[in-house]
Amino acid sequence: MKTLVMKFGGTSTSNVEALNRAADIVVAQHSEWDRMVVVVSAMEGVTDLLIECAEGSLSKDKDRYQVIIDQLRNNINVVVRAIFSGDRSYEKLNALNNTRLQELTNICQRIQLQGKSSPRDMDEIAAMGERINVHVFSALLRKRRVRCQAIEATNLIVTDDCYQAASPIQTATDARVDAVLPPLFAEAIIPVVTGFIGATPNGTTTTLGRGGSDYTAAILGVSLKADQVWIWTDVDGIMTADPGLIPRARLIPEISYNEVYQLAYSGAKVLHPKMILLTREWDIPLWVKNTFNSECNGTRISHCSLTDRYTISAVTGLSDINLITFRTIPGGNVNKIKALIRAALKNRGTTTLAVFQAKHDRSVSFAFSANNSNHVIQTIREDGPLRSLGWNFSQPQVIENVALITLVGREIYLTPRVLSLATSTLNKAGIDIKRIGNGTSPDSLVFAVANKDGEHAINIIHDEVILNDPLISPITQPVLKHLATN
Ligand code: ADP
Ligand code: ASP
Ligand code: MG
User: Fold this and answer.
1) CA 389 / ligand 3 centre spacing (Å)
2) Pocket mutation for ligand 2, best pick of 50, 133, 210 (most atoms within 8 Å of C-beta)
3) Is 382's pLDDT higher than 90?
4) Packing angle between helix 119-126 and helix 89-114, nearest 10 degrees?
């Protein structure tokens, strides 16, 4: 049975125009597929406000959380009133939203009284945006006479209790999906499911990490053995750089899971990294498409890539990074130290963004987001295997305020031409390169530069290395055609 899971992000559901376009897309697609599931995120900005609200309930300003809840109520009401006012569903939707906002108020009051919040409270609060929006979007679809049912993913996606970054328990999820969704498909009803959230086996709400609605679509795609997963957002697809930062960025019509994973892992927030791993594992073709330009095909992500014959696909960046450098004493084995540090960090679930090794001074540097840095040093100090080596390497040196600029492309790290072109471009612009290395795969090439140089570095790498490379230019042709017709 032809099955499609599609997800609309916050950018595609946060105002009347966006919601109407998303609804148009569902209407246009639903006769094309035997089974279709729609995943919806919270409206853009709502999850940020909810997190602020949770933090506000612990602030000295006692009214802070209430002010934010009023702002949330107002933002949601503006959209709901514009679409549904005068409609039968209006009162019902208002009542539902008020119930959710009252629940939110109660949790915040409790946190304020107790003077502390738990990770579990944080997830209960962060989940409200999706729980509200799923009803808004399904009411809109019903207004278009689409048969659908809003479903909270707490009834579908079973996770561990790692709040704020829960992982799905796929077999338990498969069983729930199998029990809940097929009866709806049999009645030609489209399930409209909350993104971002799940629940532990005993029913406590969890969230899958920021941007996690993409992950929801992949998890459901695996359970349903979907033919395709489509991610609808506010840009034409995966581009050669973040078009929010570089308007000259061009669409990449086709890219591999590996490359797009490196992009997402290294800062491009267009897709959640874990969803890419999951769709790759189950070989589910993934598309990124533009809700506001649905005529454009978007980007197809699969095992192969249009860049198979070329090298560079895109550039991305991360700022506020700390580099922690270890030097071995003369005769020390830097490879062994590197492997042990990696293992110690992996055991503690700490994400290393890049590793740089310098043979000349027997050093190895690890890149982390700045707020992880103390925890990392502590972890390494306490690690048994490293201690048993007699800590035979120097005390770590920490360089703060670093940006990582990552170029992504098939086996780019092994391509001397790209390395020399990118290095000379940065040198010519007077940008000091602190380190060069590969991120976590040969598909990425990472430059560590000062934070203040980060944006400039991305701009010149994009314009002078990616767009100017004669081997790259064939990629841009379909995009130029697309731009010419829009
Ligand atoms: P959504 O709400 O739809 O999930 P996100 O904001 O999470 O949207 O992701 C879409 C955004 O990702 C785009 O608006 C764009 O600014 C950003 N982005 C970053 N890097 C890229 C890239 N290489 N290609 C496309 N978009 C990118
Ligand atoms: N609403 C959640 C967030 O803002 C999930 C998502 O948008 O994918 O992180
Ligand atoms: Mg997103």
Assistant:
1) 43
2) 210
3) no
4) 160
